[in-house]
Amino acid sequence: MSDKAFNTQLWLVCQIIMLTFCVPQLFAQDSSEPAGPQCAVLELFIRNDCADCPEVQQRLEAYAKKRGRISLHVHNLDEPGKHVDRYQQILKYFQLQDAELPVAYGCNSLLRKLKPDTSTDERIDKLLTVDIYVRSGCSRCAAAKVFLKGLKQRYPVFEYTLHDVVSDSAAGTRVHELADRYGKQAVSVPVFHFCNQLVVGWISDQYTGSKIEEVLKFWTTTCPKPEKSDNKQSILQQPDHSQLQFVSFQSEPDLDSPIPKTNDDPVPLSPVPKNNSSLGPPPVGDNDSLPPIPGGDASLPPPPGDVPPPLEGEPLAPVPSQAMDTIEVPFLGELSKSRLGMPAFTFLIGLVDGFNPCAMWVLLFLLSLLVNLKNRAKVLAVAGTFVLISGMAYYAFMAAWLNVFKLIGYLPMVQFLLGLFAVLIGLIHIKDFFAFKKGISLSIPDWAKPGLYARARKIVNAENLAGAILGASILAVLVNFIELLCTAGLPALYTEVLTMQNYPDWKTYAYLGLYILAYMLDDSIMVTIVVITMGRHKLQENQGRWLKLFSGVVILLLGLVLIFKPSLLH
C-alpha cells in the first residue's frame, strides 16, 4: 500500500471518529438546562362543600391566564383519585392534620385558606418572586446579575426583584431577618430568596448559578403548547410578550444602575422546611411515587419527604445548621464563608494602630519611672493596668464609631467624606516625618504634657499599690481622650469597613475585640520587656517620626481605596 493511500485511509478513520463523538454532542440537549421556557406548576385543592373554592378557582384561572406561563392543576378532594393521597403526603410534610380549603401548593410553599380577593393574587405573586439582595460596587453581585439575565429568559414566569441593602435600609433589615429565619449564621451579598429557600453568596455561574437553576427547574415544567383544558387540568399560557417585571434589567445595559426602594411586603412568608435542602422537598421513593394526575401531566413535582417545616404564623423550631458560618465551594466542599481576609486585616490594622507615638510615648515614660521602684510585681501591676484600661477605653471609642456608622447608614457620600478625612490625616502624619510639629500636627499637644508627667509621677510615688493602680487607670483614660485626633483615622476607617460587611452584632463586636487585642500587643510586649530586663527607655523624636510615617502611609492608602475602589474593602 502506498503512503498516499495509507494517509488517505488514516484521514478517513480520524474523520469517522470525530463524527462519532462530536456530532451527538452538537445535537444533544444539555440536561442541566430546560428544553424551553419553563412554566410554574401550581396545584389547587378544593372540595364541593367549600364556600370559597369555586370563586378562588375562577380567580386563580384568571390570574394564570393573565400572568401566563402557569401550569394550574385543580384537584377536587371529593372525587376519588391518587391526588387524595398526594394531598395527605403534602399535609404530612407541613405537619398538618388538615388545612382549611382552598389550598394551593407550589414552589416549595403551601398557601392555606385562600380568599376570593386580591390577597390571593398577592400571595401567588410572592410565591413567584425571586428576591435578590445586592449592593453597589459588589463584583459578585455584578456577576450574578449577568447570570440572571439568562435565567429570566429560561424562567420568565418568575419576577426577579433587586433590593440594594445600602440605599434601602429596609432591605438590609430584611436580609438579616431572612438569615435568622433560615438559620444562616452570617450573610454576604448577593443573597437570593426564592422557592422558600435562601441562597447566600456567589461563586460562579457553574456553581451557584447551577444551584439556583436546579431549584427553579425542580419546581417548574416545560411549557406545553396551548391546548384546551378539561375538568381536571388547565394549562394556561400566554405568548412570550406577556408582561413580566424585572427590576433594573428592563433596558439598562448598566447592571449597577440605582435600584428603587421597596416597602416591606405585607404578605407573610411560607413555612420553612427544616431540612433546608438545596432542592426543596425531596422526591418520594419509587415505591411511594404517585402516578400522573388524571388527565395528563406526569411532570408535576412530587410531594415532599417526611421532614416537616414549622407551621405558618407559629414560632420557628431550631434549624440544625450544617456548620457555623459556612459555604459550599466546588471541589473543596464546605468552607468557612467568613471573609478569610477579614481576621488578618483586622489584626494587621489593629497592630498598625497600636504603633502610634501618642500612647506609646506615655507608656514608655511611665515605665521609665516605674523601673526606679526595682519591683517587678508593681511594675507589672501598674503598667499592665495602664495597657488594659487603655484597651477597654479604646474599645468603647471604636464601638461609638461603629454605632455612628450604623445610625447614619453606609452611604456613598459618607464613604467619600471619610476617605477624604483619612487622606487628610495620613498626609498630616507623613508631613510630621519631614517637618515634626511644624504647622498642623496630630500629636499630644505640649500644653497637655506637664499634666501627664505630673500624674505619672504621682502613680510612682503612691503609698500603696491600690492607689498606683487607680492612678494608672485614670491616666489611661485621660491619654485616650487626649490622643483621639492622633488615632481617629484608623479606627474610623476600620469601623466603616466592618460596617460594610453586614455581620451580625455578635460577630461585629468580636472583630472589635480582635482589633483591640492587636492594638494592645505592642504595648504588652514593651511591658514584658521592661519587667524582664528592668531597663528604661523613652521614645525618641526620631522613632516617633518613623511611627508617624508608617501609620500615615497606611491611613493614606486606606483613604484612597475608600474613595476610588471601595469594593476592595468588602
UniProtKB/TrEMBL annotation:
Ranges annotated as spanning the membrane: 344-367, 379-401, 407-428, 465-490, 510-534, 546-564
Stored SUPFAM superfamilies: Thioredoxin-like (SSF52833)
Location of the region described as Disordered in the Swiss-Prot/TrEMBL record: 250-315
Domain of life the protein comes from: Bacteria
N-terminal signal peptide: 1-28
UniProt KW Plastid keyword: no
InterPro entries linked: Thioredoxin-like_sf (IPR036249)
Keywords, ordered alphabetically: Membrane, Signal, Transmembrane, Transmembrane helix
Composition bias, Pro residues: 300-312
Name of this protein: Glutaredoxin
